[in-house]
Amino acid sequence: MENLSDYKEIVDLIKANGGEAFKLCYQCGLCDTVCPWNRVRPFSMRKIIREATFGMTDIESDEMWRCTTCGNCPSQCPRGVKIIESGVSLRRIATEYGVFPTSVNPVRSISASLVGEGNPLNEERKNRANWAEGLSVKAFTEEMDVLFFPCCYISYDPRLKKVARATVRILNHAGVDFGILGTKENCCGESIRKTGDEELFKRLAKENIKTFIDHGVKRILVSSPHCYHTFKNEYSEFMVHFEVIHISQFLIELVRDGKLKISGSYGKKVTYHDPCYLGRHHGIYDEPRDLLRQVTELDLIEMPDSFKDSLCCGGGGGRIWMETPKEERFSNLRVRQAVDTGAETLVTACPYCISNYEESRLSLEGEDTLEIKDIAEILQEVIP
Ligand code: SF4
Ligand code: SF4
């Protein structure tokens, strides 16, 4: 016979790790109907919650690692269950015990890279600012207007470095007084926190905060909605406040103030994908679209599942580092949706989305029918 006190102990452990809100759930199942996983395979957050409520969580299973923290179900839950935070509480327990299913194993080496080099890509810290070579980007000083904080992917990934370089060209063209911290930056820590590694998140965050304070940083311009989220919502847990601006907000402001003149045209059909951490998590839907509407001859068309119903790319919640079989990738569905609208360009504003869509683009018949761009790359093409 099972020992009931074991279950009680697990319930207490889940509560202690932040899963208290599970008990509000009344098992309506709405979360499962809106979850993108159910478009590619069966998955039940409702079941995970039920098991956790009774202390019957299997910490060795893949299931609790599936949630991409896309934000779709918590925004619809009639009981206000903090589904993302509660799901992370289970991952914290697994992380504490060092139990990872095979698909999650890559997170171990990601953590080691974050500890050793401050980035998840196993790249050397000393190369963090190499993306800026030849662009005369200045080191940030206190007198400057804004710190540009490109995330790890944009700093190191060969495809995404183009986004950092495009951003710098636009900022220079508009005469923005900005600098970078280069090798002094760490990963923001957002995604590793979602895998349950609270200790590593705190370490990365504290080091970044110290660097920001030491350099007199007050405003931070970010390309990644994940940096945006954690600087804005999570670094405040350390009793600090920085003004955080996403590049889409910053650029439309420059255009409206007459500081950034758009002169060229972009004669293509374009569709915009709302990244979860920009749209659903922060309500930033209009700025990227307003920016695209400023471009002459750019024909902006909407996909199904847009704005608050945006289809997740699959990269949030640390899933960018986990293994997902090809037939289970949401990003494959999304690039298909983009092609079906007749769009020639799928534009977005998040490095994880771009990575996933670039890979899914290869699964399309005639991969050249669709190009994937960051919003800064489009803007770069239409300024003198
Ligand atoms: S939508 Fe909310 S109340 Fe309904 S099953 Fe999901 S977590 Fe529980
Ligand atoms: S947050 Fe998104 S991925 Fe996670 S369970 Fe809810 S709908 Fe599914």
Listed once per kind, the bound small molecules are:
iron/sulfur cluster
- CATH class category of the largest domain: Alpha Beta
Number of helices: 15
Report the radius of gyration as a whole number of Å. 21 Å
The N- and C-terminal alpha carbons lie at a distance of 75 Å
At CATH level 2, the architecture of the largest domain is: 3-Layer(aba) Sandwich
Total individual domains: 3
β-strand number: 8
Mean pLDDT: 94
Strand content: 5-15%
Could you write a compact summary of the structure shown?
With 384 residues, this protein is an alpha/beta fold. It is 40% helix and 8% strand.
Question: Care to describe what's here?
Answer:
This protein has about 375 residues and is an alpha/beta fold. The protein folds into 3 domains: about 5-105, Fumarate Reductase Iron-sulfur Protein, Chain B, domain 2; about 105-255, Rossmann fold; about 260-380, Rossmann fold. The chain has helices at about 5-20, 30-35, 45-55, 85-95, 105-115, 150-155, 160-175, 190-195, 200-215, 225-235, 245-255, 285-295, 330-340, 350-360, 375-380, and strands spanning about 145-150, 180, 220, 245, 270, 300, 345-350, 370-375. Strands 2-1-3-4 form a 4-stranded parallel beta sheet. It has a 4-stranded parallel beta sheet with strand order 6-5-7-8, with helices on both faces. Helix 14 links the parallel strand 7 and strand 8 (about 370-375). Helix 1 (about 5-20) crosses helix 4. The mean pLDDT is about 95. One iron/sulfur cluster binds near residues 35, 36, 45, 69 and 83.
